[in-house]
Every structure is written in structure tokens, then in C-alpha cells.
């Protein structure tokens, strides 16, 4: 597999900035296929562009610009997947007044393929979250939360495999421990599980099911702390994950970490408020059958 290009698209205009190029060895000789993964995180209900008095990022963001860029990239003809790594809720009065309906409806119209949950998705309680998930036109991936017995039971998937022009992309979701971040009453019935163990299980399962590429949608934060597992430790302590699309820390960057078997894992995150749209072009060389 080759992560041929990683871009950030600034949502002030349709400007493409080449941020990094990472190359990974593919398999034996075979036909190459290139697919594109687009991703957002921590958009925080920024439905319209950032206000003119907000300094450097004034005018960036907004759903209309994001949709315009997404449509343009899809028109290029590559297979495209569109993911979000959580906290698409909360941050402007639109969420408070309309209870997240605008966000999930707009993301459905933009054609999101899957999302994971951020801590702010719980801000109005598990029951209200379940209502929004039912309204959504895309799956919610959550491999490290047990919602048994709560209103969210049966409303998430741990992972999903997408067939993109013959390339099987396996994606799974992870969310930070909400204790201390979310009122306990609002997260009642949501049981947090170790993200490292859950990630390894998900990656192993996806590989066993034939995934060519494994992507983690994470709302953990870029770096670990004494209290929380971040993307850096997640990558280092697991194997089988190719790409981590991160969230929570509102950081803007691209890094690589060696996994426990020595392979490279690429980690990306796209700041916050929908200022950037991430793009990763992945070239997969399918192995010839013996």
C-alpha cells in the first residue's frame, strides 16, 4: 500500500496545499488502484464561515464551502470516502436551538460515509444522541463503547468495510473516555473500554475479513497524557492500522509512528471548526493470485 499524497484543503477557497508525501511498499506486482479519503474533525457546528472578527481564520469553514470542495474532488473520478472523527456537534447556537439536526442533515447531504463520536456528541444526553443517530444517513462507528441497556444500544457499528473501486477499506471508530468531560447523567449507560485492546481487535478482524487498508477514526487526541491514550500511543501499541484520522486535540498536522511490529502508521488531524478538509490519496497494489 502506498499513501501517495496527503493534502489539506483550506476552506477559505478551493486551495490545495501539499502537506506531505509518504510512500509505503506495496505487495508483489499487480494492478495499482488509487482511492481518496477525505476527512474532518471537531467541526463544532460551524455551519457558516468563521466570523470576520476572528483573526487569522476569519472567513474559513462553513458547510457550503466544504460541500463545494467535496463535490469537486468526487468529480475527479477516483473512488472517494468521506469520514468525520467526532465533535461535529456543539460550539455555535445552531446546535443549542436545533439540537444537532442541522449538522446530521447537512453531513448526510454531503455524503459522509461514516463518523465516530466525540465527547460533545453526548452533551445533550444519550437519549438525544440516539435520536440524532436515528436521523443520520451515515453509520456511527464505535468500537470501544458498550451501549448495552441504553438508548444507544444497537445504534452503532464497531467497524465497517467499504468497497471502493475494488479496494476494501476497513474503518473503525474510537472515542475518548468522557468521564470528567461530560456530565455523568448525559453519558449514563455509555461504558468506556480500553481503546488499544479494542483497536487491535478491530484491526485484526478487518484484516481477517479481507480489508486492504485499515483506517481508525479516533477522537482521542494527538498525544497521550497520564490520563488518556492518544493517537501516538494507539499507533505504537497496535499493529494492522495504516491510517489514523484523529480528532479532539484540535491540532493541525501529519505525523508517522512506528507500530509494535515496526510498520509506519500515518496520523492526521485537521484543526477545528471545519477550517480544513483533509485529503489522503492511497494507492494500493493488489497482489496477484498465485
What does this structure look like?
The chain has one domain (2-285): Metallo-dependent phosphatases (Purple Acid Phosphatase, chain A, domain 2, 4-Layer Sandwich). Strands 2-1-14-3-4-5 form a six-stranded mixed beta sheet, covered by helices on one side. Mean pLDDT is 87; it is low at 11-29. It is built from six helices and 14 strands. It is α/β, with parallel strands linked by helices.
Short description:
The protein is built from 6 helices and 14 strands.
Shape: globular
Helix-strand makeup class: alpha/beta
Report strand %: 25-35%
Termini separation:
19 Å
- When the domains are counted, the total is 1
Q: Strand count, sense and closure of the main sheet?
A: 6 strands, mixed
- Major sheet strand order: 2-1-14-3-4-5
**Percent range for helical residues?**
10-25%
The first-level CATH class is given as Alpha Beta
CATH fold-level name: Purple Acid Phosphatase, chain A, domain 2
Number of strands: 14
In angstroms, what is the radius of gyration? Answer: 18 Å
Low-confidence runs (pLDDT<50, min 5 residues)?
Answer: 11-29
CATH superfamily: Metallo-dependent phosphatases
Question: What is the H/E string?
Answer: EEEHEHHEHEEEEHEHEEEE
Overall mean pLDDT: 87
Protein name: Metallophosphatase
Domain Calcineurin-like phosphoesterase: 36-251
Pfam families: Metallophos
GO molecular function: hydrolase activity, acting on ester bonds; metal ion binding; nucleotide binding
Amino acid at each position: 500500500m502506498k499513501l501517495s499524497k496527503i493534502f489539506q484543503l483550506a476552506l477559505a477557497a478551493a486551495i490545495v496545499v501539499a502537506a506531505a508525501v509518504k510512500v509505503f511498499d506495496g505487495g508483489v506486482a499487480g494492478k495499482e488502484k488509487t482511492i481518496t479519503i477525505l476527512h474532518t474533525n471537531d467541526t463544532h457546528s460551524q455551519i457558516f464561515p468563521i466570523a470576520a472578527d476572528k483573526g487569522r481564520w476569519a472567513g474559513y469553514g462553513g458547510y457550503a464551502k466544504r460541500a463545494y470542495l467535496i463535490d469537486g474532488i468526487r468529480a475527479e473520478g477516483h473512488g472517494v470516502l468521506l469520514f468525520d472523527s467526532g465533535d461535529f456537534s456543539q460550539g455555535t447556537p445552531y446546535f443549542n436551538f436545533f439540537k444537532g439536526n442541522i449538522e446530521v442533515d447537512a453531513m448526510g447531504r454531503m455524503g459522509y460515509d461514516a463518523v465516530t463520536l466525540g465527547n460533545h456528541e453526548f452533551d445533550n444526553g444519550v437519549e438525544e444522541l440516539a435520536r440524532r443517530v436515528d436521523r443520520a444517513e451515515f453509520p456511527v462507528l464505535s468500537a470501544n463503547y458498550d451501549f448495552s441497556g441504553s438508548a444507544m444500544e444497537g445504534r452503532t457499528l464497531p467497524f465497517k468495510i467499504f468497497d471502493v473501486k475494488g479496494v476494501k477499506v476497513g474503518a473503525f471508530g474510537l472515542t475518548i473516555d468522557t468521564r470528567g468531560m461530560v456530565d455523568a447523567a448525559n453519558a449514563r449507560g455509555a461504558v468506556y473500554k480500553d481503546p488499544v485492546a479494542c483497536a487491535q481487535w478491530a484491526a485484526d478482524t478487518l484484516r481477517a475479513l479481507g480489508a486492504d487498508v485499515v483506517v481508525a477514526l479516533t477522537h482521542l487526541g494527538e498525544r497521550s497524557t497520564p490520563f488518556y491514550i492518544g493517537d501516538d500511543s494507539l499507533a505504537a501499541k497496535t499493529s494492522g492500522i495504516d491510517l489514523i484520522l484523529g480528532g479532539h486535540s484540535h491540532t493541525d498536522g501529519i505525523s508517522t509512528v512506528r507500530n509494535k511490529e515496526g510498520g509506519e502508521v500515518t496520523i492526521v488531524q485537521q484543526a477545528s471548526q471545519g477550517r480544513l478538509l483533509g485529503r489522503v490519496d492511497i494507492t494500493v497494489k493488489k497482489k496477484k493470485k498465485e
